[in-house]
Amino acid sequence: MYDVIQLGRFTIYVPYLIHVASALLATGWVYLAGNRHFNQGKSLSNEWLESWMVSVLIWKFSYALFHPLAVIENPSFLLYFSGGTKGLILGFAVGIVYFLFKTRNAIPEFPLRVVLLGSAGVLYYGITTVTEILYTPDVWWIYILKASYFSTLACLIWKREWFVTKISQIRLTEWFLFGWILFKIVTDDVYLNDITFWVMFVLAFVLVIMDIKDGMKK
Length: 218
Description:
The chain is mainly α. 75% of the residues lie in helices and 4% in strands. It has a two-stranded antiparallel sheet with strand order 1-2. The longest helix is centred in the N-terminal third of the chain and has 25 residues. Keywords: Membrane, Transmembrane, Transmembrane helix.
């Protein structure tokens, strides 16, 4: 299989390595952006890495929350199972709250905390998409393009205007949503009952209307 590396008796799951590498690269990005805009690179990057670790731990061990009886009967299940999609959502939610709370002193302005977190999250998301190459190598170029698009989008906040102005924040969100929707369509990963897709579509539409209204005021 392409997604595992066998080292003697040890089996390493390649997607996990990619996620760890992505988290470290995102941590480095938070350090650079934090230093540029707030002179707080070290503390902000530490908080980002901690929030990522909190998310991962909750995702992994939330299996006990959703299947308590199974864990009581066989605690070793915690080693082999995770909380699945529900655990992932819970982990992300707690990680986001953790970061926003822990960085409140370094970045008093709540919107700027959200932008920095979003930038790191988009970079992390973009890099981790290369895991799809392991399973669909024939269209590897699509996932390289996808990773490049979202990584570039995340780094636009290096320019302070993109970081602090409301209209720029709206447009960055628009471009993320448009990119997400486009790559969903290109990879034939759209279904009529996909609630996430339609929520993203409606949100993108609302942001476009907001952008147009803001432009008309000027």
